[in-house]
Design brief:
CATH topology of the largest domain: Rossmann fold
Largest sheet: 5 strands, parallel
Radius of gyration: 23 Å
Distance between the termini: 66 Å
Number of strands: 7
Helix content: 40-55%
CATH architecture of the largest domain: 3-Layer(aba) Sandwich
CATH superfamily of the largest domain: Response regulator
Strand content: 5-15%
Length: about 300
């Protein structure tokens, strides 16, 4: 069914098969779209994504290494393109669970398997306008949160409502558009969630090491866990440096200093050092929940954790 409001939205359509592009374009026109750019090469696709902001991307993929997955992941991480939160629908003849899972892991909003009816495409587009999923960021994923309500952490702040160019165009809502300020706010919110998850991981590892270090079998694995803690801190530091959460760097340094000294003396572990590590990790986790000024005040009070 034609939706007159769709005529205000722009679409970038990619498929290497000209006849399929023509079919998809015809379906989009029947739905009410008019501003449709279609390309048949990854080079042309990348060029347009890099310089122009589209309200919806419909991209065909046939293999994990055909360039689409790589482009989408780079777009979501804002390494390419104008709008990292652009609504995306992937289409493919590939229906294996392994392939679908891999493509969903790139951050697409929807995945349609050929052959599909034009009505199915219309339903996905309508869902992007009316009830698009909020985004979540983990160590390895950035995209729509597909966990059920029971899979989400309780409390506010576990997901972020990101700019929605398609809804902004269709409903005439410039407040929902991907302005630089809106993109920055959403990215900061997602990074804060990611940093919070990383801080919890650091605290959990520190606690495990302290609690189990007297177990003979575990002593052999403690060094590997400490390496994991330090690697997690490195990821967290990079995330903090990329956003306005740089006040967390001092807390990261405090944990790194303690963990580094403990790692140097492995397999001999100082109980007082392990207790201090757990305290420093707890301070880091609390700091993530604070604003800049409060975190600095807490760090000053806990000055014994840093040099």
């Amino acid at each position: 069914m034609r939706n007159q409001a769709y005529c205000t939205a722009s679409i970038l359509l990619y498929d290497i098969r000209p006849h399929v592009r023509q079919q998809t374009r015809a379906s989009l026109i029947r739905l009410g779209f008019r501003d449709i750019a279609d390309v048949g090469s990854v080079t042309d696709l990348t060029g347009l994504v890099d310089v122009a902001g589209f309200d919806l991307l419909i991209l065909a993929t046939a293999a994990l290494d055909d360039g689409v997955a790589e482009l989408l992941m780079a777009l979501r991480r804002h390494r390419r393109g104008v709008d990292p939160f652009a609504p995306v629908i992937l289409t493919s003849w590939q229906g294996s669970s392994r392939f679908v899972k891999s493509m969903l892991g790139c951050g697409t909003d929807h995945y349609l398997i050929w052959p599909y009816a034009p009505a199915q495409l219309g339903l996905r587009i309508d869902a992007l306008v009316r009830c698009r999923k909020p985004f979540v960021e983990t160590r390895d994923y950035l995209g729509p949160d597909r966990r059920g309500g029971g899979g989400r952490r309780s409390g506010a702040g576990s997901v972020v409502e990101v700019p929605n160019a398609l809804r902004a165009a269709v409903e005439g809502r410039p407040d929902l558009a991907p302005s630089p300020a809106a993109i920055k706010a959403a990215r900061t919110g997602l990074e804060r969630i990611r940093i919070g998850n990383l801080a919890r991981r650091v605290g959990a590892i520190a606690k495990i090491i302290k609690q189990r270090i007297d177990e003979r079998d575990y002593r052999l694995r403690a060094a590997a866990d400490m390496d994991d803690l330090l690697a997690t801190l490195a990821v967290m530091r990079a995330a903090a440096e990329a956003t306005d959460l740089r006040h967390l760097l001092s807390f990261c340094q405090a944990v790194e200093d303690v963990a580094g000294k403990l790692r140097e003396t492995a397999p001999v572990w100082d109980p007082k050092g392990l207790a201090l590590l757990e305290q420093a990790a707890l301070a880091l986790r609390v700091a993530v929940e604070m604003d800049d000024d409060s975190a600095r005040a807490a760090l000053k009070l806990a000055g014994q954790l840093v040099h």
